[in-house]
Design goal:
With 157 residues, the chain is α+β, with helices and mostly antiparallel strands. The chain is 28% helix and 43% strand. It has helices at 7-16, 48-56, 92-104, 124-135; strands at residues 2-6, 24-30, 33-39, 59-70, 73-82, 85-86, 112-115, 119-123, 140-147, 150-156. The strands form two sheets. Strands 2, 3, 4, 5, 6, 7 and 8 form a seven-stranded antiparallel beta sheet that branches. A three-stranded antiparallel beta sheet has the order 1-10-9. A hairpin with a 2-residue loop joins strand 9 and strand 10 (150-156). The termini are close together.
Length: 157
Amino acid sequence: MRIELTVTEAVEIARATGGLPPYVRSVTSEGDDVRVVVDLREVPDPPSALKLAARLVPVVRATLHVESVVAGTAVLAVEANAAGLPAHKLLGFVEAPLQSALRAKDLPPEAVRVLPDARVAVDVQALLGGVLEHTFPGFQLTELAFADGTLHLDGRL
């Protein structure tokens, strides 16, 4: 079974199911890149460094490029800027709030990990597993790809 979703469709599903945190203002795609706008002032219980950053530069714009997808985990290269400053160098400060948001949604917090060199590993299979299982009981994700703004999921029932 193959499921294909555009980034817009995936965002609509995430918003409808409460899976998109309120601090994510927008998510769009252009080719193989995903563009995200985040309002740091909306991040609940941020660490002190993130609070300070939110006061100085409240909105961050990031471009995520899928480098690889292996065994359901996507590795994304992140280029982020806040008022023209290279915010991706501060990516480590975002990991704890992201993991808290996942934990609050009963999702595995380890599904998002910040890697060296402004990269993030996202266990898409772990994050989508519950949604897919609820929608398609017995569905097992076997393959995942992202190209031209479309998420391609292959699986079996």
